[in-house]
Amino acid sequence: MTRRVAVTGIGVVAPGGTGATAFWDLLSAGRTATRGITLFDPSGLRSRIAAECDFDPFDHGLDPDLCQHADRYIQFAAVAADEAVRDSGLDPGSDDGWRTAVSLGSAVGGTTRLEHDYVRVSEHGSRWDVDHRAADPKLHLAFQPSTLAAVVAERFGARGPVQTVSTGCTSGLDAVGYGFHTIAEGRADVCIAGASDSPISPITMACFDAIKATSPNNDDPQHASRPFDARRDGFVMGEGAAVLVLEEYEHARARGAQIHCEIGGYATFGNAYHMTGLTTEGLEMARAIDSTLDQARLDPTRIDYVNAHGSGTRQNDRHETAAVKRSLGAHAYDTPMSSIKSMVGHSLGAIGAIEVVACVLALKHQTVPPTANYETPDPECDLDYVPRTARSRKLRNVLSVGSGFGGFQSAVLLTGPGGRTP
Amino acid sequence: MITTEVTADELAVLMKKAAGITVDPQELKRDAESPFDFFGLDSLGLLGIVGELENRYGLSLPPDSERCRTPREFLDVVNSTLKTGA
Amino acid sequence: MSTQRLRRAAITGIGVIAPNGQRTDAYWKSVSEGIGVLDRITREGCGHLPLRVAGEVRSFDAAALIEDRFLVQTDRFSHFAMAAAALALDDAGLGSGEPVDPFSIGVVTAAGSGGGEFGQRELQKLWGQGPRFVGPYQSIAWFYAASTGQISIRSGFKGPCGVVASDEAGGLDSLAHAAGAVRRGTDTMIVGAAEAPLAPYSMVCQLGYPEISTVEDPDLAYRPFTSKACGFVPAEGGALLVVEDEDRARERGVPVRATLAGHAATFTGASRWEESREGLARAIRGALDEAGAAPEDIDVVFADAMGVPEADRAEALAIADALGSHGRRVPVTAPKTGFGRAHCAAPVLDTVAAVLAMEHGQVPPTPNVFDICHDLDLVMSRARPVELRTALVLSRGLMGSNAALVVRRGGESAR
């Protein structure tokens, strides 16, 4: 059984603004939300910059318990999910909860809270036999990865399959993909799908410092995230969440819902190469793209936009450029491909979902968001990366692709009105 | 003044510790011009070795050090840095 | 127009690293004989914690099973996973490195506790010594995706790769993911879960679960379905399976040990055990539906056995609700009382026990449980010989997931 899957609601918490409107304003203006880290004192780190969310949980109608006790990434997800469900017009109370699923991704989950409490129970890293008496009694909620999906499921009375996906930096794409499968294969009619991460903490920054993956451009944070630009020097950490309401197409039609677009296909493959390294050929990502096109029975020439992983590491940008050329052939040169990480940073597991929402908005506004900070072409990256300025364009079929530590290579295809050949 | 020099023997020990690579020090000396790949050492492993040395000697190695392709190249960069105390 | 036969997911390989047995035969011997291995926790830095009893995987020799270059960059949970995956591949006749299309084999694991011991070591370096002392492997060892990634790299598998980061029921969800990937066209999936939650800080993090047992006597700490139920005992270890398209397995000439016939999952909220009754019953019905099985077809139930009175009652009632009068007659067992609940790996180890039970025609017993206070035919004391064709595996998670899996013996098909 394969059923059509519509996107009927979106919500986002991103650096530079909460809500889809503020998010799109930032993207379409090509503004960057990267800055010096304020969430903790980053002295001693190599990379001291990030794209942070100016986020106060009390501003968003969350109940006091969530505001005071929940991890930041859970709060992001709750706010993004609220917006998505509102946008979809679904009345969660009236719908059959047993037919509502949740599929949310996170790469590092409760790490930030875990580190915070670790410092206390270990007396600043001085003891291995940590003192449990100093721990927060709710620490298990940070330790348990499915807290994310559980909190969101509770919020909307979802009682169908509820799961958390954690495939590193493709978590967001894969969570949307799993949600797509859940509906397409009949396990639910509605799925709240997306991802969240709040990784701006000493341990996460330090572990990327250790492999020199993040940008050390501390003197010019606004211009530090430079995907595809010859002068790039690593990614800029981000944080945030995005959630989509996915719905079986006829279910959405029957209730007269707005249909933003459809999920045309999803695929993921492993590169079986290296936990952090990427090949220069991009074979596995190309395979993921090809598979989504097959599922939608779409010719590669009908792709109108590629939302790139575009992290701004040299190996990623070359890998991805090669993958897109492999899949789209000569059409790759006529297809705009941009990275919103230039503006909102790289929020690890969350970014895949944030990028899918960016694609939904691109389809809605028929506008391609730019790659900010792109100035100096890299001879090995010779596609159209939409430098600095958003571009109006007829968009019907758009791809979002991603790569993650562990070798994950994923692609999601979105089709707007007129996108799919019946 | 630092007079220490990192030898091929020490590099072999570091490769084991930081990257789990077993290499005979004699072989490492003999094939010092062979790429690190030849010994099974990847970029993360080399970064781990750079980190160990930086912490041991309390100094920063130049960014070139982690891009070295061979043991010879790497030891030259490390030892010239140690000599100048940079 | 040709009608394509539905691709079915068959289990052709099993690899186990469990507290009561490393390798499948050792595991089955302990399980079938009802040997309990729960004991006081011996891992360094844990002795002072109020959680005293667990199922530890002792004398696990990672270095004998996994290459050093993988060991230095991974946590214990990935060591278990890599070791179990290699055993499963050997069992399925895929360990010899015969050339296959790398895209035809994928990997999916479930994980609920991540690389806690590795993470704690690196946190200690960061906060005790400074950021420069954090090593290059922290970024790939602590996160939940580590085991899937390393298994894929170690064996060169490029098929669909995934990670369910979940509470216990996620172990069954991972099997459903694998079955789905096979149905959608992937030949083979390496699937399962392994956990290593017995490091000091990880244990501190688990103390907040109201369901965890803090009883100090290993024989009394985990006794589900009894009036003395006082919570569950955690464990480490896990199991990986080779799951492949049934036709493909027959072409390769390897025995089909069992098929993954049906799965369903629901959610009823953390620690709301009374509500898990309906959730679990619905999951069971969903799994039976997908398997095309009737309640009477179920020959044995591997219970979740949370060990919390309300949870046990809800499970007993769910079995009755979903299986009707058959629910009172069908043998029910919970071998995990002998070695603990290894989070996401718990239901995968149960699935392995179910396959082995069907192969041996024996329902294994529930160690340490002697008198129960629910209307169930719980198998106690010693294994019961019965011909078994179809097994039902149940799992519930501490955050509120409920899942059910129907497994059929190799060679059996839906009515």
TrEMBL record, chain B:
InterPro entries tied to this protein = ACP-like_sf (IPR036736), PP-bd_ACP (IPR009081)
Residue ranges spanning the membrane: these are: none
Per UniProt, residues of the Carrier domain are 5-86
Q: Which Pfam families match?
A: PP-binding
Q: What is this protein's name?
A: Acyl carrier protein
**Organism source for this protein?**
Streptomyces prasinus
